């Protein structure tokens, strides 16, 4: 494997409330001024298990997991640039949007929402892009 032309800094995987990854991927990588957050779902960060509950509960846990990875990379909700949303049932979109507005405010990030076949038990999965702070600012940021 050849080294990257650009330096990338990996974000914490697990610990600090960040749910553990379930496969061969980083939870997030900062490259340049962008934090790329991998797919997040309704996994309990403490147990790694899918949370019990309905769609609304899964949306809340999923968005909280997304924001925990963002925080581990020094970003916050207002830094989100784009989010991809995968719903097991696209008819759940109105409920998703209602819960989403509890975590994010205008100006909203760009968004793509699609119906997808997800892992058994999951009703939603998201990934996102966040503006990343400069390395010098990363330790002093909070929302």
Distance between the termini: 38 Å
Per CATH, the class reads: Alpha Beta
Strand content: 25-35%
Kindly name the structural category.
alpha+beta
Main sheet?
6 strands, mixed
CATH homologous superfamily designation: RutC-like
Mean pLDDT figure: 87
- Secondary-structure element series: EEEHEHEE
**Annotated CATH topology:** 60s Ribosomal Protein L30, Chain: A
Side-by-side strand order of the widest sheet: 1-2-3-6-4-5
Task: Describe the model.
The protein has one domain (8-140): RutC-like (60s Ribosomal Protein L30, Chain: A, 2-Layer Sandwich). Helices cover 20% and strands 25% of the residues. The protein has 2 helices and 6 strands. The chain has helices spanning 55-72, 93-103; strands at 8-10, 28-31, 34-40, 80-87, 110-115, 124-131. The chain has a 6-stranded mixed beta sheet with strand order 1-2-3-6-4-5. Strand 4 (80-87), helix 2 (93-103) and strand 5 (110-115) form a beta-alpha-beta unit. Helix 1 (55-72) packs parallel to helix 2 (93-103).
């Amino acid at each position: 494997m050849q080294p990257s032309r650009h330096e990338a800094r990996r974000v914490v995987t697990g610990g600090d409330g960040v749910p553990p990854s379930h496969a061969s991927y980083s939870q997030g990588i900062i490259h340049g001024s962008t934090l790329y957050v991998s797919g997040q779902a309704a996994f309990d960060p403490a147990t790694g298990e899918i949370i019990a509950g309905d769609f609304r509960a899964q949306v809340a846990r999923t968005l909280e997991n997304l924001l925990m990875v963002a925080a581990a990379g020094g970003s916050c909700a207002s830094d989100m640039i784009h989010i991809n949303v995968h719903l097991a049932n696209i008819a759940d979109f109105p409920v998703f949007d209602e819960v989403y507005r509890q975590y994010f405010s205008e100006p909203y990030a760009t968004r793509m929402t699609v119906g997808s076949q997800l892992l058994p038990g999951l009703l939603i999965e998201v990934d996102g892009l966040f503006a990343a702070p400069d390395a010098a600012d990363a330790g002093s940021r909070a929302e």
